[in-house]
Amino acid sequence: MTFSEAEKAAISSLAAKISPHADDFGAEALDRMFLSYPQTKTYFSHFDLSAGSKDLRSHGGKIVKAIGNAAQHVDDLDHALSSLSDLHAQKLRVDPGNFRLLSHSIQVALAAHFPGEFNAVAQAAWDKFLSAVSSVLVSKYR
Ligand code: HEM
Questions:
Q1: Which residues contact 136 (CB under 8 A, 6 or more apart)?
Q2: What ipTM was estimated for this complex?
Q3: CA 63–ligand 1 middle distance (angstroms)
Q4: Is the pLDDT at 96 greater than 80, yes or no?
Q5: Residue 142 has pLDDT above 80, yes or no
Q6: 22 C-alpha to center of ligand 1: Å?
Q7: Of 18, 58, 94, 138, best ligand 1 pocket probe by most atoms within 8 Å of the beta carbon
């Protein structure tokens, strides 16, 4: 998948804005996913899933950092996400349909926090970016 310069700008600008608040932003995206799609909680039975918990903030921070790293390597996501792809496909075996649910929750959190910048054009770029990230994370299932 290739990204235009305008798409890359929309992706990297918002990624830079969420990275200083990685734990909070990631915890909010996870909380939105668990509330809207409770079936996703099955993968996290070992976590305290209450809103703002230490587990959610720590895991949310990891997700946002991984997204920040991916945003800096949009032309080489396979390489940038290789070890995370091994983890999700071979060890965690997360059902691929769940990636859309997290991607949606991340986009809703972006819309809530950056209503001006996250306009339709930026959303389209992020939707494409998160689909590309998700494709890599589910590419090693067998
Ligand atoms: C672990 C990123 C989607 C379930 C992780 C880790 C990262 C990550 C960075 C930590 C890896 C480590 O500790 O080395 C992402 C990204 C996603 C994504 C960027 C998509 C944009 C999902 C989805 C699910 C999921 C959709 C399930 C609904 C898990 C689980 C763990 C994990 C269960 C292990 C948690 C633990 O026990 O610490 N993910 N993930 N991930 N992910 Fe994902």
A1: 77, 78, 81, 85
A2: 0.98
A3: 7
A4: yes
A5: no
A6: 14
A7: 94
From the number of C-beta atoms within 10 Å of its C-beta (0-12, 13-18, 19+), residue 131 rates as middle
Mean pLDDT of 20-28: 98
Single out the residue of 4, 59, 1 nearest to residue 27, CA to CA.
59
Residue 48 has pLDDT above 90, yes or no: yes
* Of 46, 49, 57, 84, best ligand 1 pocket probe by most atoms within 8 Å of the beta carbon: 84
Quick check: CB of 141 below 6 Å from ligand 1?
A: no
Euclidean distance between CA atoms 83 and 104, whole angstroms: 23
pLDDT digits (tens, 9 = 90+) for 104-121: 999 999 999 999 999 999
* Token pair recorded at residue 9: 């700008």
pLDDT of residue 93: 92
Question: Does 28 have pLDDT greater than 90?
Answer: yes
How far apart CA 7 and CA 136 sit, in angstroms, is: 19
